UniProtKB/TrEMBL annotation:
It comes from the Bacteria. It is an enzyme of class 1 (oxidoreductase). The gene is ndhD1_2. It comes from Bremerella volcania. It is a multi-pass membrane protein. This is NAD(P)H-quinone oxidoreductase chain 4 1. Pfam families: Proton_antipo_M. GO terms for biological process: ATP synthesis coupled electron transport; electron transport coupled proton transport. The keyword Oxidoreductase applies.
Amino acid sequence: MDNLAYFVVTSLIFTPVVGAIVLLFFPSENKSLLRWFTLFVTLLVLLPTLWIALPWSEALSFEINEAGVQNVVQVSWIPSFDIQFFLGIDGISFPLLLLTALISFLAMGASWTIDKYVKSYCVLYLLLLAGMMGVFLSLDFFLFYIFWEVMLLPMYFLIGVWGGPRKEYAAIKFFLYTLFGSVLMLIALLMLYFNSDLRQLSVEQLATAHIAAWDEAGELLSAEDYKAKVDASEYPVHTFNILALQQLGQHTEVFDQVLLFGKSIQWWAFVLLLIGFIIKVPSVPLHTWLPDAHVEAPTPISMILAGVLLKMGGYGIVRICYPICPDAGYDLVWFVCSIGVISMVYGAFAALAQTDFKRMVAYSSVSHMGYVVLGLGVWSATAGTVFDPVSWSMGVKGALFQMIGHGISSAGMFFMVGVIYDRVHHRDLNQFGGLYGKMPVYTAMAMLLFFAGLGLPGLCGFIGEVFVVLSVWKLSATLAAIAAAVVILTAAYILWAIQRVYLGPEYRGPHQEGISEINLREMAIALPLCVLAVVLGVFPATMFRYMDATVDQQVADLVEWTEDVKLPQLRAERQEADKDVAANAP
């Protein structure tokens, strides 16, 4: 691998870590210096991701026509268990890396209002950023799990120390829910690891999985030499390599043996992983930590929570659940899609019932992320004899685009709520009104971001939702109709909120004297989000171009698995059932 690419990819994780360590030597009294240095570190993470996105460097730029993993970093970490520091970028992870770097930079700009324990806040903030980047870069399941856990403690303290009146309750609830999901993920991780067997893979499959080892001289072994050593049991046969686990799940039967209650290892692994990931999404009924965490968290942390952390659940489903456990995904298609639709409907109705501005936006995230779960569930869409790979592709691309669009609009909505909260110190929707006359620029930008969240055509929220609804039609017209109807509920709570806050009668709440137009710092944060909301809505290909090759390849792989493995299995079961019926006929 090119040394420049090696350095840049690893810097996305280690730059925030080094920045956090350097901050420890800064004087606590100089709050301005602490803030500016932390903002500079987040900029050092954002700039390389933008550099990769643009075609400026043959060694580093993202190849949009390349379906596999790019800019791979692979270093042996714990050789006895085949655990590696294995990083890489593809069309699924790269858009989310861009989103993480951007939202983290803007949220740090929104952190100027944090005035208590600024040094500790900045250190935890940078550690959180390192963990988030690590999750999207990791291709070793053990490493993925470590970064997943690394995010837990910084977010716990960022809510519990700098949050609102019920911050301890919200932080503990967030911690317990996430930790419960992490335990389930760890169980699934161990199940897959101890049942994996690299000897079952061919040389080509090992090469596709980027399986790597080094000889005594430090030279990288070829896939043929590695295969020979694994077959001779000179190297570990179990692996945490996510790409290798995908190959094992789709091309071997190592995860198909029955574990409990007639269900296979991969079936249970899928269920455990899905629960862990939908807690983070979050989906009904495991969503209750989110409104409390959002309401109590400070504005910049709410931006990161909605803009990035929720997307990690969807990323885990598309990266790990379906490619490694396709048989379970196929069997549980109705379960997954139903969770998505229920979350969409419940979140929308719950948002309608809120009088707290921030809580309303929090429940809107539950509803909008339901589209993500539904679109990913359609990846295994079959209904009777229907087998439609086009719907698979449309569903997963719609879900990924929805994650990006929601990351932009939700971060913007939470920031706009925070702007007015900093002025009037309350979020009661019934006490607002008439802000358009007092804050016209702020109101215009806020309305654009809220309309993006609504899914208005021409803005970033529309494309993903439409793709998801279209993709589910062949699976179930009923689910598609319900998903489409949720747009009406979304319009209801968004328009009602706009009417009560920005239009309507004069402002009726306290601290009226504090209402002033948005300042330059706040505008510098809101403006990029507004621009992206329009650009992604009008030119969605700017994001799809990164996703297409990777998603198409994964869909093709799962189509091949379905045609070669699942459909013959179903036909054999049907023939067996017909024979039993014929044998028992009078």
